[in-house]
Structure formats: structure tokens, C-alpha cells
Design a protein that fits this description.
The chain is built from 5 helices and 14 strands. With about 260 residues, the protein is α/β, with parallel strands linked by helices. The protein has 3 domains: about 45 residues; about 100 residues, 3-Layer(aba) Sandwich (Oxidized Rhodanese, domain 1); about 100 residues, Immunoglobulin-like (Sandwich), CATH 2.60.40. A 9-stranded antiparallel sheet has the order 10-9-13-14-6-7-8-12-11, with no helix packed on it. It has a 5-stranded parallel sheet with strand order 1-5-4-2-3. A hairpin with a 2-residue loop joins strand 9 and strand 10. The termini are far apart.
């Protein structure tokens, strides 16, 4: 009887030892697996683009004058980030442009849908670009947040010329600017800017010539983003800023 008790005790001791070794070995394997997964995740991050929120993207644009912004959408003309270059990913334009791009620079990629901006970002990474950011949510949240957008406005009627117009609404301030490449107005005339919504409109002021360009800068504490149509008119100097638009010279629209 006593002998059986001793044997049973020895079995329990041996079993406990084996279980202890197994438990600690398993813990080590789990730990090693987690470490390996972390390393793999880090490697994937280092060789991938980085998603960035609109606020961070805006700060990066402000801080880095060498940043290259690429719009990979087919809707560039409807509105885009100021200074963005349009290489539509769907028609091969981005593929054609990649060999001419500087790999040392930082890139911000966006579209109107995730599938295109992700594809565009991956193409840059695959080509060896290391500093690639993708605007999270793409154009829509950027637009809604009031960050700067830019559109081209074009000549109408018998006039010739073109202009870039931008607008933003940040920190409770509405900012609107137009830079137009136009010939000088007729004698006794001047150019004036307008923002329009349906049958409602208001003047954004007289355009001034600066370095061969006609420039208009308008700022207000009233959010006027609902006034999406942009018009430049030729006005009679004798009438001044009378609130009555005359002949349309350029027209465009914010998305």
C-alpha cells in the first residue's frame, strides 16, 4: 500500500514537471509568434503608403513647399487641392508619369474613391517611392472640412483667358482668391469678381493687376461656400462697384 502511494506521488511530481515545461514552452512560442507578427507588421508599414487625416495633410502641405500632391481621379476639373497634379490612375496617366517623378520627394495621393487612391499609392510604392501618403477619406472630407480647393474658370463669349479660383473656410473665416491671365480691359473698364447661387450673388471686389496677372482676394467671417458659381465681369469704371454685374468674361464653379 505504502509502495503504491510513493509511486503515485512520483507520477504526480513527474507530470507536474512535464506540464510546467510544456506551459512555459508554449508561452515562449506564443511570445515569439507575437514578436514575429509585430516585426512583419513593421516591415509592411515601412514598405507601404501611410493614410493621413485631412487636418494632418493640411499641416503637411503648409510645412512642406516641396510636397507633390497627386489627384488620381477623372474629376480634377470639378475641383481639386490647390497645386495638385492630375494623373488619372484609370487611363494609365499615372503609370506614364511615374518614371519622371522624383523619388526623393514626399507625395500626397487622393481621389474621390478609395479604390483609385489606394491603387495609385501602391503604384508609387511598387516603383520605389518611400514617402507616400494617402488622404484618408479622399476629397469629400477635405471639402466638407473647409480646407482649400481650387478650380479653373474659363473665358466666355468673345473673351480669351483663364484663371484659377480657390476658396476655404477655416477658423471661422471664408477666403476666396482668383488669379486670372487676361488681357487688359477695354478703356474705361475694369474687372470685377462675383460669387453666385441661383439668382443670388454678391461682389467679391475689383481685380488688381500684379505681375502680369489680375488678382482678386476676398475674405469674410460669413461662410459663403453655398455660392459655388464664380464669375468675372468687365465693368464700367464710371459706375464703380455698383453691385450690378455687366458683361461676363470668365465663368467657373466650385464643386
Amino acid at each position: 500500500m505504502r509502495k503504491n502511494i510513493i509511486i503515485a506521488a512520483m507520477i504526480i511530481v513527474v507530470a507536474s514537471f512535464v506540464y510546467y515545461v510544456y506551459l512555459n514552452t508554449t508561452k515562449d512560442l506564443v511570445k515569439e509568434t507575437k514578436v514575429d507578427q509585430k516585426i512583419e507588421s513593421m516591415e509592411m508599414t515601412e514598405n507601404s503608403y501611410i493614410d493621413i487625416e485631412p487636418a494632418a495633410a493640411y499641416a503637411m502641405i503648409q510645412a512642406n513647399s516641396e510636397l507633390v500632391i497627386i489627384d488620381v481621379s477623372p474629376r480634377y476639373s470639378e475641383g481639386h487641392l490647390p497645386g495638385a497634379i492630375n494623373y488619372y490612375v484609370g487611363d494609365g496617366s499615372l503609370d506614364k508619369a511615374i518614371p519622371s517623378l522624383d523619388k526623393e520627394k514626399t507625395y500626397l495621393v487622393y481621389c474621390h474613391v478609395d479604390s483609385a487612391s489606394i491603387a495609385g499609392s501602391k503604384k508609387l510604392i511598387a516603383a520605389g517611392f518611400e514617402k507616400v501618403y494617402r488622404l484618408k477619406g479622399n476629397y469629400s472630407p477635405w471639402l466638407k472640412a473647409g480646407y482649400p480647393i481650387e478650380v479653373e474658370i474659363k473665358a466666355v463669349g468673345n473673351y480669351s483667358g483663364s484663371a484659377l479660383a480657390d476658396r476655404s473656410f477655416l477658423d471661422g473665416k471664408f477666403n476666396h482668391k482668383v488669379m486670372a491671365k487676361l488681357g487688359d480691359p477695354a478703356e474705361g473698364k475694369f474687372y470685377e469678381g462675383w460669387l453666385v447661387k441661383g439668382i443670388s450673388f454678391f461682389s467679391t471686389g475689383k481685380m488688381e493687376k500684379k505681375d502680369e496677372m489680375y488678382v482678386l482676394e476676398y475674405m469674410s467671417e460669413e461662410d459663403s461656400r453655398e455660392f459655388k458659381d464664380i464669375v468675372i465681369t468687365e465693368e464700367t469704371l464710371a459706375n464703380g462697384l455698383d453691385g450690378k454685374p455687366e458683361v461676363h468674361v470668365l465663368e467657373g464653379k466650385f464643386e
